[in-house]
Each structure stands twice: as C-alpha cells, then as structure tokens.
C-alpha cells in the first residue's frame, strides 16, 4: 500500500502527522507528505485513520 497527499489542497492541519507519524510528515512547504513509499503493515490502520480523518480529503491510499 502507498499513501499520497495532494499538496495543492493540503491545509497543513497536522491531523495525519499526529495520527500516523510513521507515514506522514511536514515538508519544507509545511504541507503533509507521505514519508514512506510503502506503508508498513503495522501502521496501515493508523494511515487509514489519518486518511479518513483528513478534513479536506487530500490523502489517497492505494494498494
């Protein structure tokens, strides 16, 4: 599974970073980005929680 963040529409709220720091971090533009190409199995649930909780729905997770 891979996570992607739409940089253009990210509002930098930080929810995904706080829910799943193993997958998401802030970049130099203070936008969230996926830090791992493949989501580790042990954090898939928290990555999905971060995606589902995003207030502007800019996170995609693909298998």
Automatic annotation (TrEMBL):
Gene Ontology terms for molecular function: electron transfer activity; iron ion binding; iron-sulfur cluster binding
Domain called 4Fe-4S ferredoxin-type: residue spans: 1-29
PROSITE patterns in UniProt: 4FE4S_FER_1, 4FE4S_FER_2
Stored Pfam families: Fer4_13
Superkingdom of this protein's organism: Bacteria
UniProt entry keywords in alphabetical sequence: Electron transport, Iron, Iron-sulfur, Metal-binding, Transport
Record function comment: Ferredoxins are iron-sulfur proteins that transfer electrons in a wide variety of metabolic reactions.
PANTHER family attached to this UniProt entry: FERREDOXIN
Protein name: Ferredoxin
Organism whose genome encodes this protein: Velocimicrobium porci
């Amino acid at each position: 599974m891979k996570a992607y963040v739409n940089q253009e529409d990210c509002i930098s709220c930080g929810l995904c970073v706080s829910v799943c720091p193993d997958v998401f971090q802030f970049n130099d533009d203070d936008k969230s980005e996926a830090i791992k190409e493949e989501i580790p199995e042990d954090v898939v649930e928290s990555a999905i929680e971060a995606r589902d909780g995003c207030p502007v729905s800019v996170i995609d997770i693909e298998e």
